[in-house]
Amino acid sequence: MALARQGDTTALCEVGRRYLLGTDGFPRYLDLGLDYLSHPSLASSVQATMVIADALSLAELARRNLLIVLSTAANAGLVSARLKLGIWRTLTSPDSAEAMSLLVAAADAGCDMAASALVAVRESPSNPGIAILNALLAFPSLEVQQAIVQALATAVRCRDLDFVARVLRQALLLRFESTSELADGVCEALSMLQHRGLSLMTYQSQRVEALLALCVNRGNPAAALLLGRALCGINAASIPSSLLTARRNVRRGSALLLRAADAGYTEAWTLLYRLHANGHGPVANPQMARFFLEKAAEGGSANAQRQLGALLLRSATCLEEAEQGVQWLHMASSVGDPLARQLLSTLLLPCEGSDDEANSAIGAILDEDAWVAYRLRVARDFGLTKVEAINVDVVAGARAWGLVLLTPVPTSKSSIPRVLPGLRPEVLENLRMAVEYFRRSGQTPASSDTGRRQRLQRLRFALERRGIDESLFFVQANSSVLSARRVSSTWAFHSRLKIQAALAD
């Protein structure tokens, strides 16, 4: 100790070795031992490198990111380092040539454990990696099981899917005791692989199910999601349910999915909706299915938002339900869901002409009559008729997702409000600016025939003065066309194909 404090390199290595091993009167204290062996005077010491590689297990070296030390010691000829590095390459490398070379070198230097591994390879040449690892599991001092768990954790941390799949395959095919650490590693690896489209080999489903059940019993919601999905017979992109469990149990699977959903896994709410919406399933329940769909939508699932919006619009009997449906569809569309956007588009009527032409006309009118300019902008953005543009209360009808015609054309058929989504961000920004203008100017909707005639004349004058065709801003539609664009049974009939597409998983 006195020599080590004075910087003697030999003493530093010896003190570090004794702390790492807990021998010759020293307690086992890994951190302190590594501190001695990482002294600046040992920066280029091969001896210190060999002490670390020899004293620490492979799992500990991997956990502490000291595999470069192991590689250096193996290159320097340390037999134990060659054996450990051979095990690591067997676990992590797709090419077994380097691992075999390291094991042969260790065996030639007199390592009995490496020799046993090579004998196992000769007896089982079709799968050398599994043969090597199974043979070395017989030597507890190597801590191969812990190394496998650490390799799986390293693969998950690197997020290399091929690496993860390779180590997972070995972890599930090897014959060793299942532990909570192994179960957690397998669960995390399967969670990473389940939606990545990576083809996996078939394992013994009983063992996988037992590992996931162990995680579930320890309160792991990711395992509850994986096992619950499998028990319900629902396949993931690359993991068939038969890989995780030997037989179905939908009721138990639903209970596990509910546990995962309560823990924050939105996907579980969606799966529960599918199970309970299936009228022929063992847990069919339309009321619960609707509840689960709402929870999934609230959790941010674009598919659930689209499906809920489509359901609400298809069955809407009042303006509130129609608004809720459009709001959910807008949320799904805003994150790129094409089916939600297509369904929303059925509520709009297109104007003629190009946007550039319309923008130029509005710009010419804006300085002279802002009221007309903003009315024209709202009319084109939301596909309004001329009478709708005159009557719409922009301030009261504005929503975060679009516009509601709270003051429709005053006739019996058109008294049903129109719910108009904004399909583009610029449309919603234009609406926000229009709301600010009308709120600031204090101009209220016309409440009499005289007021409506005056507004109509004001619009006509502004357009005729500049020779602007009104079809650039107002749609031409009769009452039957408008009725088909309002949320109603008529709209649902005409849009039934898009509704069916939106309700699909």
Describe the protein's topology:
Elements: H1 2-5, H2 9-21, H3 30-37, H4 46-55, H5 58-63, H6 67-75, H7 79-92, H8 97-108, H9 112-123, H10 128-136, H11 144-158, H12 161-173, H13 180-193, H14 205-217, H15 221-231, H16 241-244, H17 250-262, H18 266-277, H19 286-298, H20 302-315, H21 319-334, H22 338-345, H23 355-366, H24 370-382, H25 386-391, H26 394-397, E1 398-399, E2 402-404, E3 419-421, H27 425-441, H28 449-465, H29 479-485, H30 489-494, H31 496-503
Antiparallel strand pairs: 1-2, 2-3
Helix pairs in contact: 2-3, 2-4, 4-6, 6-7, 7-8, 7-11, 8-9, 9-10, 11-12, 11-13, 12-13, 13-14, 14-15, 15-17, 17-18, 18-19, 19-20, 20-21, 20-31, 21-22, 22-31, 23-24, 24-27
Key traits:
505 residues; mainly alpha; Serine Threonine Protein Phosphatase 5, Tetratricopeptide repeat; 4 domains; three-stranded antiparallel sheet; 3 strands
Quick overview:
By secondary structure, this protein is mainly alpha-helical.
Q: How would you characterize the overall build of this protein?
A:
By secondary structure, the chain is mainly α. The protein has four domains: 2-144, Serine Threonine Protein Phosphatase 5, Tetratricopeptide repeat, CATH 1.25.40; 178-298, Serine Threonine Protein Phosphatase 5, Tetratricopeptide repeat, CATH 1.25.40.10; 302-347 and 495-503, no CATH class; 355-486. Helix content is 66%, strand content 2%. Strands 1-2-3 form a three-stranded antiparallel β-sheet, sandwiched between helices. Strand 1 (398-399) and strand 2 (402-404) form a beta hairpin. Helix 2 runs antiparallel to helix 3 and helix 20 runs antiparallel to helix 31 (496-503). It starts with a helix and ends with a helix. Mean pLDDT is 90; it is low at 408-414.
